[in-house]
Amino acid sequence: MSSAPRRPPMVAGNWKMHTTVAEGLALARAVVERCGGQDAVEVAVLPPFVHLWPVRGVLEGTRILLGAQDVYWADAGAFTGEVSSPMLSGWCDLVLVGHSERRHLFGETDEDTARKVAAARRHHLRVILAVGETATERDAGQTFAVIDRQLGAVLAGADPPPRADEWVIAYEPVWAIGTGRTATTAQAEEVCAHIRAMVAERAGTPPRVLYGGSVTADNAAELFGCAAVDGGLIGGASLKPDTFGSIVAAAVGASR
Length: 256
Ligand code: PGA
What we know:
Helix content: 40-55%
Bound molecules: 2-phosphoglycolic acid
Strand order of the largest sheet: 1-2-3-4-5-6-7-8
Order of helices and strands: EHEHEHEHHEHHEHEHEH
Distance between the termini: 11 Å
């Protein structure tokens, strides 16, 4: 380990399409209770859209960040069911863009993702950009090519390129999401380091890079101990406040 100070880690809980509003408010309160008292790690919760406003109230006066799970690229118009950046800007801190479920279940392309990142940046929303390869792509030796294509599409349209404080990249191998098959520390480190270097070269500054995919209270400390891993994007385990609290504690430990 180098003696340089570590970049502050982030741990973000992606609740996906889980919890009613009442359950989501209770979960947010439980997260505040367990994670609201530390400032070594940026903690974020990403509830479903309909919970965002009431959860904002629960988070008031804490350092816990609020994020949306997606955003549309247009500012307003006839786009039934969509939510735009101006609707979120000013009270929502973050938006997640390019999650593999958006890409693979809802057919979002690299270009769609690039437009969404651009819209969020225009309206001063910090972005968590998710990238990652499928099992087939990894087996075919295409991991870096896929990551470079996904990042490249976003960087190509970005003028000026994103500063490090405008975005965080989440490396989420698709085969590790919700499967219980976590990447090894060597796999996580290799790809996260590649992302840092690739973006530093193209954008001028390296972003923080999170790992996501079956992070649990048992494997978090090891993953967050990797030099290129700056925390995690947590799905299933973010719905259990004690487990999420333990994952945040692992990130606090790794930040020292
Ligand atoms: P998981 O999901 O932690 O349930 O694997 C991660 C994610 O999809 O962000």
